[in-house]
Design brief:
The complex is a heterodimer. By secondary structure, chain A is of the alpha/beta class. In chain A, 40% of the residues lie in helices and 22% in strands. Chain A starts with a strand and ends with a helix. In chain B, 24% of the residues are buried. Classes of the chains: A alpha/beta, B mainly alpha.
Chain lengths: 277, 266
């Protein structure tokens, strides 16, 4: 469980990136943190594994104050995948890259081997085991970065902008993967601008603007409230926009799921047909 | 990092920022020469103090104090090495003069940092490049120079992100013996270098696609022009230089302890 209690954070440059944020993320929850550029999303999640310490207030991870423990200790619990894989890849082979964190945490060699194989398999990278990560494409590098964090099986997983630069197929795989993590009772926190992706995943949405949380609730509720979204410079997903436009014909306004939308339209159409007959 | 912070240019409007970079550079060189000319404490104190009004005029006091704080570490090294070695060489008898000498050496360094800090805090990289160009340095070199200066803060920021990313994977930089600690930096240096190379290739492509070097005769959006302030600073610098050279050879410089006798206080 992550508890953020009235956290303020000011960068050395004097920018106050967080201005009194309070948030509770329970175990097994799937949370999307959304908001415009510079809203403080990444600053907030960097507090979850102790990379940043609050200037004021407290962050507790499973009851531990992040100020009292090292990043390495917290990292064992909280896996953090950075936005740009090029900021972390350095090894000669993909295999070594994934083993890096495991070595840092002091796993035994035979365990490392097993975990690396498991992580490679999970993300479909087995064929690249002996390849240099620098030779891979952007999407593959992103997957290697993800695999290198998943390998130690952290309880809480933070993904910073996981969908940037990914094609639809990769996004779908990512979504399946997140659902799988959810099924395993892991906590997943994603930071993203990608409204369509969030609409498909239907997580809890925390909306940020100017260093404050402006809304917190179900995706279905928040992503279909244009006046709330406007504060964070986000527009509703396309399907919701269509339904918002059609609300005067008696369509519901809280639709974010394309399949659900299709069914509602079919029902509507059938009802219309019956009227004519 | 704080020391670099104190050398980083910030766009502020002030009479010092508006000065011609060539004149400011001449001033820095003159300061350097004068500071190196003297080994006595008194003139170095004067050199230190006459620069303070420039700092307040340029409205960069806060950043300047940062650079001074950054220099304090090196300054203390200079002080102690000078003090210890002169002490070993001359013995206890000359303690006050050793003290004064070490302080003078330290202050000399501080005066140098002070003038360089004023220069870099108030001169934008663009102006610097322009000044180089005006001094007939080939444009390619000027461009390379300004680009390098401009990318320093970008690289520093990137290094911080990489450090965070590796820490999040359990890397502990301060763990282990010296050899291990040096090796701890490999996961940070490799991505940093790879990204820098990648970025420079991208920059080259972007420049090519914007027809870099298509015309031989370049014109500039901003032209450097000497204004009244520039002539005043240049004149003051020359006067200072002449006075300093004259004083060096014709006026015996008293030691601080001769003006305020040490023995009286004992």
């Amino acid at each position: 469980m992550i508890e953020v209690k009235n956290v303020h954070f000011t960068y050395p440059s004097g920018v106050e990136a967080l201005q009194g944020v309070s948030l509770k993320i329970r175990n097994g929850e799937f949370v999307a943190i959304m908001g415009q550029n510079g809203a403080g999303k990444t600053t907030l999640v960097k507090h979850f594994n102790g990379l940043l310490k609050p200037s004021k207030g407290n962050v507790l991870v499973d009851g531990m104050d992040t100020r009292d423990v090292s990043v390495a200790t917290l990292a064992r619990k909280v896996g953090f995948v950075f936005q740009n894989p090029d900021h972390q890849l350095f090894s000669e082979t993909v295999e070594e890259e994934i083993a890096f964190a495991l070595r840092n945490f002091g796993f035994k060699e035979n365990v490392i081997k097993r975990r690396v194989t498991w992580a490679l398999n999970l993300l479909g990278l087995t064929q690249y085991r002996k390849t240099s990560p620098f030779m891979l494409s952007g999407g593959e590098r992103k997957r290697v970065a993800l695999a290198s964090v998943l390998a130690w099986n952290p309880k809480i997983l933070i993904l910073d902008e996981p969908t940037i630069g990914q094609d639809y197929g990769q996004k779908e795989k990512l979504r399946q993967f997140i659902l799988q993590m959810k099924a395993q009772k892991k906590t997943v926190v994603i930071v993203t601008h990608d409204v369509e992706f969030v609409a498909e995943c239907n997580p809890r949405v925390v909306l940020m603007s100017n260093g404050k949380i402006v809304a917190d609730g179900e995706a279905r509720k928040i992503l279909t409230s244009p006046e709330i979204l406007e504060k964070a410079a986000i527009i509703p997903p396309e399907i919701s926009r269509v339904f918002l436009e059609l609300s005067e014909f008696g369509f519901p306004t809280n639709v974010i799921d394309v399949y659900e939308a299709g069914e509602i339209i079919l029902d509507f159409w059938e009802a219309k047909n019956r009227e004519h007959v | 990092m704080s020391m670099f912070e104190g050398l980083k240019f910030r766009k502020v409007s002030s009479p010092i920022h508006d000065l011609d970079p060539r004149v400011k550079f001449f001033y820095v060189i003159a300061m350097f020469a004068v500071a190196v000319m003297y080994m006595e404490l008194l003139p170095l104190i004067v050199l230190f103090l006459i620069q303070v009004p420039l700092v307040t005029m340029a409205k960069v006091t806060k950043q300047w104090i940062k650079s001074m704080r950054g220099a304090a570490f090196f300054a203390s090294i200079i002080f102690f090495t000078n003090f210890i070695f002169s002490y070993l060489y001359q013995g206890q008898q000359a303690l006050p003069s050793i003290l004064e000498y070490s302080m003078a050496m330290t202050l000399r360094f501080i005066v140098l940092v002070e003038s360089f800090s004023i220069f870099f805090l108030t001169t934008s990289p663009d102006h610097l490049g322009l000044a180089l160009e005006k001094s007939h340095v080939p444009y390619e070199f000027c461009f390379a120079f300004t680009t390098a200066v401009r990318f320093v803060p970008v690289l520093a920021e990137e290094a911080q992100t990489i450090m965070d990313a590796q820490k999040a994977r359990g890397l502990e930089l301060e763990k282990g013996n010296i050899l291990k600690r040096v090796r701890n930096y490999i996961p940070i240096l490799i991505p940093l270098i790879v990204n820098a190379i990648r970025r420079s290739l991208e920059l080259a492509e972007a420049m090519e696609s914007r027809a870099w070097g298509a015309t031989k005769n370049r014109t500039n959006l901003y032209e450097l022009k000497l204004r009244r302030g520039d002539y005043i600073l240049a004149l003051l610098t020359v006067v200072m230089l002449v006075l300093a050279v004259y004083a060096r050879w014709h006026i015996p410089i008293p030691r601080i302890m001769e003006i305020f006798p040490w023995k009286a206080s004992r």
